[in-house]
Design a protein that fits this description.
Residues 140-291 form the MurNAc-LAA domain. The protein is 44% helix and 14% strand. The chain has 299 residues and is of the alpha/beta class. It has a 6-stranded mixed β-sheet. Bound molecules: zinc ion.
């Protein structure tokens, strides 16, 4: 490189450094992604906004909590959210004899609620107490706002293969975890108790990661207990513990499973699912697994 060219090169480098925000303001944290809220200018700059990130670090807890954890609130009963799949204009799967999935899920959920309440150990909430249509997002929002310690979504399966029958339990699949994360960062933080918009993105990502990992192991733990109990009372499909990206499983801080009670596309299962006694038998298995899950949690 000859001398004038070298000089030119250094001049360009110097210009670049000086113009970079990190250089101009050494305290500025380089951002990985632009944050919508920080890009938009404040509406009334006259009012000094005390940035709340301070608050998160001023108390004894170094990081904001995503949702209150049960073990730290032993005075209250665990909150169980039961989510009856489909409803209203969405019938879900339709059986060979015309059974609507939404009717089975509504009835099973009501039974489960009654059985759980009878124990006196739980606060039980139905995401939809009647036959109404409810967005997936709304179901998750209700669970988070209601401080759910466990979220069980109840469904009935359908398959092209008419011989497929039995119950199965779903937890969140690995491939859906980024979707769960995006849900947090792209949706005005609707899913978070803390406002992550004031945090730098890497911090937010770490918080979601931590919550997600804990939730994941809790969901897996509950799914295993549930399968073990269901196994004692009913037929399970071959691969009974499955993983999927169902929207209702996406909350990064609420342990959640999706229970498929059986196949409406199978004549035998459809008949069974229409029987109150069979649904009650299944729901008693769910209660036993919930009892086990929370007795383990408390230890
Ligand atoms: Zn369904």
């Amino acid at each position: 490189m000859n001398a004038p060219l070298k000089l030119f090169f250094f001049a360009i480098m110097a210009l670049f450094l000086v113009s970079s925000p990190t250089f101009a303001n050494p305290t500025a944290v380089p951002r990985l992604k632009p944050n919508l809220k920080t890009v938009a200018p404040p509406a009334k700059p006259a009012v000094t906004v005390r940035y709340t990130s301070q608050r998160y670090f001023s108390d004894s807890v170094p990081y904001p909590r995503l949702a209150p954890h049960l073990s730290e609130k032993t005075t209250r009963k665990p909150v169980i959210f039961i989510d009856a799949g489909h409803g209203g204009r969405d019938p879900g799967a339709i059986g060979i004899k015309g059974t609507h999935e939404k009717d089975i899920t509504t009835k099973a959920s009501a039974t489960l609620k009654a059985l759980l309440e009878k124990t006196g150990r739980y606060t039980v909430v139905l995401t939809r107490p009647n036959d109404s249509y409810l967005e997936h997002e709304k179901r998750l929002r209700l669970a988070r706002e209601g401080g759910a310690d466990l979220f069980i979504s109840i469904h009935a399966d359908s398959a092209g293969n008419k011989s497929a029958k039995g119950a199965s339990v779903y937890t969140l699949a690995d491939r859906a975890k980024n979707r769960s994360k995006r849900l947090v960062s792209n949706s005005q933080n609707w899913i978070m108790d803390v406002d992550l918009s004031k945090q730098s993105d890497p911090v937010g990502d770490i918080l979601v990661d931590l919550a997600q990992r804990k939730t994941e192991s809790q969901s897996e733990q509950f799914a295993n207990l549930l399968i073990a109990e269901l196994e004692k009372t009913t037929t399970l499909v071959g691969n009974s513990h499955r993983r999927a990206g169902y929207f209702v499983l996406l909350a990064p801080d609420v342990p959640a499973v999706l229970l498929e009670l059986g196949f409406l596309s199978n004549a035998q299962d459809e008949k069974l699912l229409n029987k109150a006694s069979h649904r009650e038998k299944l729901m008693r298995s769910v209660v036993r697994s919930i009892d086990q899950y929370f007795s383990q949690e408390q230890k």
